[in-house]
Amino acid sequence: MMGIFVVRMDHPDGTEWNAFVREHVVYLKVLINQGKLLASGPLKNTPLRAGFLVFQADTLDEVQAMVNADPFAREDLIAHLDIQEWDPLFGELNRFSSRTTVSELQDLVD
To answer: Is the pTM of this model over 0.85?
Structure first.
């Protein structure tokens, strides 16, 4: 079963972000069309430009490879990167979850 990975990507200050943001989004739209990226968008009110990306992948290495292929990575425009595997058991994204949790909560999983 594929996993869900939440990525936070922070970008350095400077004009380079503006020069490559369109290419970045075009790349992300390719991943969305391939079913590999579920959602992406900017964070608000952060010190640096930053965004969350929600990937569907088999492994952390696969997610890292997709991030490495991003134009922002190529142009060294990622100041900080955090990748976490996530199990969205409850809510709108629960169709992507493992549907398995501790016994005390299992009856609450849809």
So the answer is: yes
